[in-house]
Design brief:
With about 600 residues, this protein is an alpha+beta fold. It contains 12 helices and 22 strands. The protein has a 7-stranded antiparallel β-sheet.
Length: about 600
């Protein structure tokens, strides 16, 4: 038993997964040991195998075997620990038939064990002073508390009952053997030999108590002086109570991770369905147009363009949502790892301080109902095609009966998509805010047109004004509902149109992308169109727009752009705004007269 007490400890034979003594121990290639059942269950369902302690990853799951030597040592240690407990009982007089006879030299031995900090008698705040019949030695209150239960468990008349009178009585020798695993040891005067134990700056004693009233970690002297009537417990007990909540926090995080992983799979599946729908629509349209190629060539071109645009918009939408979900999962996994580290930590004060921040739910978006829109918007094209086929059939019938009629030019009917018609119903009167305009910008008196001049104007440098980027905001703040306006871009070679958050930076260089509060469609060098996403995305437009329609659905976090003349949808941003936004306009620099045309806010034609 001396070897057991000196060289071995319980922690050397504990599995770090189940926190119990090894059962059929097995060692990983990195040298750490666990119960065979624990490490097997830990790796079940994982794509890669990782050591729970050192986090080393094994590309192939190791073929584990029982460490028979370690199992035999563990069994011997378990047997030694059982016999050691009996030996200790015998030393304390608790053998068979014993009545709790205590050694009479207890206080002499205690006095030798207590640290001497000065030549004065050892005295701790809160000690009860008691003397033996011969003058006695002061008995600490903590020792009286220890002996009280002993006195109640022995027969009346035993020597231990005289402790009620604080007389000198024989007591069992105290155990001062080193704690297993090198843990901290405390004495009556404060901290033991452990250098990692925090020390009170005022009383130089170990900080081992937690005050729930003041939510502070204190030493015994602080408790006596300043926290007498407060709710206090040991730091270890406080952490044990908090630790009981770890399971709920971990379960909540795991549930959120599972929900987001499931939502990612749903989004991927919905995007695959959209791709299949595009393939089906393309095959059907090719089969349909082959019989009437000369009459429906334009319809086929429009259909292909619509599906390509919708596919690209859906792809951007799916990528953006998946990236956000991946960030959510990364944050949740970071918190999960932090909770696992807290569960393994022996620093109770650190755990108590850190736990509230980790277990609090992160600010994560509710993804319920979020999905890629699978509507291709091709229904109106098919309706228009059916009308053309009907007219073609009537013309063939008339030609068969009466021959070719006189040449006549029949105007091509203008096809209006339902989506375009819907957004026009939300038309608003947008005007420019001159207080935000860059000093080179010139704004018309009706606040409807803006263009870039040759030099800066003398204008006050107020906080709302852009001082480096040649742009201006609209006066109308958008904080709810749906809004639509149209801007004539004419033959300009460069421009930016969209919306921006109220809190955007307006001074100095600006990085324009959705993460900084900007949602733009841009034109550069007359034919290079791009969406200011992150990173910027180029787009090929077969029909050059002369008028751009902008539609905002604030609640759904959508900004859509349309080619008004061609009645075509160009692109839609999907991103929650989080705060109010404003219409944004930039005519860009005039490039020595090559781009001096204005951006003009025009009235929406409701009859189209």
């Amino acid at each position: 038993m001396s070897l057991y007490g000196s060289f071995l400890s319980d922690e050397q034979f504990l599995c770090s997964i189940c926190l119990d003594m090894f059962t059929n121990p097995s060692s990983t290639p990195c040298g750490h040991s666990f119960c065979m059942a624990c490490i097997s269950k830990y790796w079940d369902g994982s794509k890669t195998c990782q050591c729970p302690l050192c986090k080393k990853t094994f590309q192939k799951r190791p073929d584990l075997q029982i460490n028979r030597t370690l199992r035999e040592i563990t069994d011997q240690f378990r047997t030694m620990r059982g016999s050691g407990g009996q030996a200790k009982d015998k030393k304390c007089g608790r053998g068979v038939g014993g009545e709790g006879v205590l050694p009479e030299n207890l206080f002499d031995e205690l006095k030798k064990k207590l640290p001497r900090t000065s030549k004065m008698p050892v005295r701790v705040p809160g000690e009860a002073q008691a003397s033996s019949e011969s003058g006695g030695v002061p008995i600490p209150t903590s020792i009286s508390r220890i002996t009280a239960p002993l006195a109640s468990s022995v027969p009346d008349g035993s020597p231990i009952h005289s402790l009620k009178d604080n007389s000198r009585l024989p007591l069992p020798p105290p155990s001062f053997s080193p704690p297993p695993g090198g843990r901290r040891r405390f004495t009556v005067s404060g901290a033991g030999s452990s250098k990692s134990l925090p020390i009170c700056d005022i009383h130089r004693r170990g900080i081992v108590i937690y005050c729930r009233t003041d939510q502070a970690c204190i030493c015994p002297d602080c408790e006596t002086e300043n926290h007498q009537h407060h709710d206090t417990v040991t730091i270890k007990d406080e952490w044990m109570e908090k630790k009981a909540q770890l399971g709920e926090a971990e379960q909540a995080i795991q549930d959120m991770i599972r929900e987001r992983i499931k939502k990612m799979e749903e989004i991927r599946s919905s995007f695959v369905e959209l791709e299949l729908a595009v393939e089906r629509e393309t095959a059907g349209s090719v089969s349909l147009f082959s019989a009437l190629m000369s009459a429906v060539e334009r319809s086929q071109v429009d259909l292909m363009e619509m599906m390509a645009m919708t596919h690209k918009a859906a792809e951007h939408q799916a990528d953006a949502m998946i990236r956000q979900l991946e960030l959510d999962v990364k944050e949740l996994r970071r918190r999960e790892s932090a909770l696992e580290e807290l569960a393994k930590s022996d620093d109770h004060m650190h755990c108590v301080k850190t736990f509230p921040n980790i277990c609090s739910p992160p600010p994560i978006k509710d993804w319920t109902g979020v999905m890629v829109n699978s509507d291709l918007g091709t229904g109106t094209i098919y309706i228009s095609l059916a009308a053309q086929v009907e007219r073609f059939r009537e013309e063939l019938k008339n030609i068969a009966e009466t021959g070719f009629p006189a040449p006549a030019v029949e105007p091509t009917p203008v096809r209006t998509q339902p989506r375009m018609k819907r957004v026009q119903d939300y038309a608003v009167d947008v005007r420019l805010d001159s207080n935000t305009a860059h000093p080179r910008l010139i704004i018309s008196e009706d606040m409807k047109s803006v263009w870039c001049g040759e030099r800066h104007q003398l204008l006050p440098d107020n906080v709302e004004r852009f001082d480096r980027v040649v742009c201006v905001l609209g006066k109308q703040m958008i904080s709810s509902g749906r809004h639509y306006w149209e801007v004539e871009v004419g033959g300009k070679t460069d421009w930016d149109l969209g919306v921006a958050k109220q809190s955007i930076n307006r001074k100095g260089k600006i990085d324009i992308n959705p993460s900084n509060g900007y949602w733009f469609l841009s034109l550069r060098d007359k034919n290079k169109y791009a969406f200011r996403s992150d990173p910027s995305t180029d787009v090929q437009l077969d029909l050059r727009p002369h008028k751009i329609g902008i539609f905002v659905d604030f609640e759904n976090g959508q900004v859509s752009f349309y080619n008004v003349d061609a009645k075509l949808h160009i692109y839609t941003f999907n991103n929650p705004f989080g705060e109010c936004i404003y219409p944004f306009f930039s005519p860009c620099t005039n490039k020595s007269g090559k781009n001096d045309g204005p951006l003009i806010l025009t009235a929406v034609n409701m009859s189209d």
